[in-house]
Amino acid sequence: MASNIEIKARIDITPALIARVASMADEDPLEITQDDTFFNCANGRLKLRAFGDGSGQLIFYRRSDRQGPKESYYLISATAEPELLRAVLSEAHGQAGRVEKQRTLYLAGRTRIHLDRVKGLGEFLELEVVLGAGEPAQAGVEEAQALMARIGVQPGQLVEGAYLDLLAASRP
User: How far apart (Å, rounded) are the C-alpha atoms in residues 105 and 115?
Assistant: First the structure.
């Protein structure tokens, strides 16, 4: 299973923030529309990500829901039929919820920097430092912390859980 170190922070996506992130990136950003459907799953999280171009990915992942840098283990399988797969998985497992977002993706070395506008939640920054096979998690944690400092992410901005959890907590 592949792994990375992740952080999620609530931020305001300002021109100054965009300029800081862009100055770290290796290339121009990608604008991505994502519609994530989560399914009931007893030993982690299972989501189907449908992209605006009609393609998709089935993603299984397992990680702690604490604040700050944390290791995430994941498997990804591409699909050309995300709507059909959503129907199949919904019938088989039941839906746990749905998250719609507009993501701006910057690549900085081995780190994916996401500026996310999440429907019903607001604006966030995510960092995903991709770990090499057998690489200790601490190396990725240190890299994530250094990037957080360069971007200006404060500890009080860090959030725990997935967007799905934050959406569920925001509903009365």
Answer: 7
Furthest CA-CA distance within the chain: 45
Low-confidence ranges of the chain (pLDDT < 70): none
Quick one: CA torsion of 47, 36, 31, 5, rounded to 10 degrees? -40
**CATH code, 3-170:** 2.40.320.10
Q: What is the pLDDT of residue 39?
A: 98
Q: Which amino acid is at 121?
A: L
* Amino acid identity at 10: R
With contact defined as beta carbons under 8 Å apart, do 115 and 14 qualify? no
Question: Length of the chain in residues, anyone?
Answer: 172
Domain ranges, ordered by start, for the chain: 3-170
